[in-house]
């Protein structure tokens, strides 16, 4: 009986520890991204850092920094990343932030193109929310409409229709943001 009670106690501790880990910590990639975004905010959209300094700060390998840069700081999300390798190498991140409504609209249209997949449309909506151009609620509604209406068509026509529909939706919701 005693061994069984100890086993239950061990299982509870392990379960509690797992929940604490899931709730208490963010993924390393998220931490690196948040740090770089904070630096960009403080430096008005232009940051120059050394890859090895970032790796040391987050106790990771430089390839982890490369992963974050290539997946989170893309031109689709409105960033340009320049890099020079070597001992005195650096990473320069530039936030492309269209200032006026006309350039915002041109940027969004360039991201949509003639056709757009659902995953790219979702990523674009998330970026537009992050920039404060539309609300989270508007993005959710737009996402839902795009998913539902594009299902009516098959193949490549889905992406073409989705692009046209997204342009129409953004014409309405960006004006309301």
Overview of the molecule:
- Mean pLDDT is 79; it is low at 1-23.
- α2 (28-42) packs across α4 (62-72), α3 (51-57) packs across α4 and α6 (118-130) runs antiparallel to α7 (136-150).
- The protein has helices at 2-24, 28-42, 51-57, 62-72, 101-112, 118-130, 136-150, 156-176; strands spanning 46-49, 79-84, 90-95.
- The chain has a three-stranded antiparallel β-sheet with strand order 1-3-2.
- Helix content is 66%, strand content 9%.
- A hairpin with a 5-residue loop joins β2 (79-84) and β3.
- The protein is built from eight helices and three strands.
- The longest helix is centred in the first third of the chain and has 23 residues, at 2-24.
- With 177 residues, it is mainly alpha-helical.
- The protein has two domains: 25-95, Phenylalanyl-tRNA Synthetase, Chain B, domain 1 (2-Layer Sandwich); 101-176, Orthogonal Bundle (Non-ribosomal Peptide Synthetase Peptidyl Carrier Protein, Chain A).
């Amino acid at each position: 009986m005693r061994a069984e009670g100890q086993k239950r106690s061990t299982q509870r501790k392990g379960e509690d520890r797992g929940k604490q880990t899931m709730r208490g910590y963010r993924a390393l990639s998220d931490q690196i991204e948040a740090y770089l975004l904070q630096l960009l905010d403080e430096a008005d959209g232009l940051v120059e850092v050394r890859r090895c300094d970032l790796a040391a700060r987050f106790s990771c390998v430089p390839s982890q920094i490369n992963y974050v840069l290539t997946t989170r700081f893309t031109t689709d999300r409105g960033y340009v990343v320049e890099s020079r390798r070597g001992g005195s190498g650096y990473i320069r991140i530039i936030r492309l932030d269209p200032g006026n409504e006309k350039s915002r609209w041109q940027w969004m249209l360039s991201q949509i193109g003639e056709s757009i997949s659902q995953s790219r449309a979702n990523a674009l909506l998330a970026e537009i929310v992050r920039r404060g151009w539309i609300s989270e609620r508007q993005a959710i509604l737009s996402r839902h409409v795009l998913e539902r209406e594009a299902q009516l068509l098959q193949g490549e026509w889905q992406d073409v229709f989705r692009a046209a529909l997204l342009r129409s939706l953004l014409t309405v919701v960006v004006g309301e943001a």
